[in-house]
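Minutes, project check-in
Item: structure for the 209-residue chain
Input as provided by the requester:
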Amino acid sequence: MAGRDKILMVKNITLLFWIISGCLLAKPIVSGDLANDKFNLVQGNLADVILTQLPLCDAALVIGKDGTAVLIPAYAFEKIQVEEFEGIWNLKSEELPPVTNIRDFTEICLQQIPAQYSIKILGEDNRQLSPFQYKLEYFNFLGESEKNGYSMKKYKFSNEINEIKYDNVDKFEFTSGEIKNIMSNNSAITFENFYFKAADDTLKTIYLK
């Protein structure tokens, strides 16, 4: 094989490698108080990225690969840019506290009040739990930073997983309106990116005995 052909072959293989690598690099997960899984994360001003798709969004928890997270209120979205370079997604802002600059974030969890797929837990709890609240319970609060009148809360992922486990479930109500009596067990209730489910159906209410 001629030297020129070898060089061309190496270039083609290298190009193919980068194309395949780019396809394999997944976008950060978008979770929280969503209505569906069609949210499209793109580069640009954070206000444009979020509020055009979720106009009533109240806040965003942006989670870095190292488990560090920042809670950003909606009024500060316009001060932040979402950037992607070679598969690495970054958050940048010159006007907000340094904690807002997260390199290589892997998930963005959105809060909307009221959440469409929150669940009511009726019984001794008598509380309502949204997907955003559930996700936030996985993090420990580290502190708060201020700059230019903006205040940002910093969190760190906790190894203490707050799973939903009840041994005294009486029945489940699903978003379809159907109510089922299901034998309670620790794996009966699961959480997806934006909703809770049991028996492969979306939960609306958990009735405790």
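Outcome recorded: The helical segments are 3-24, 46-51, 131-136.
No further action items on this chain.
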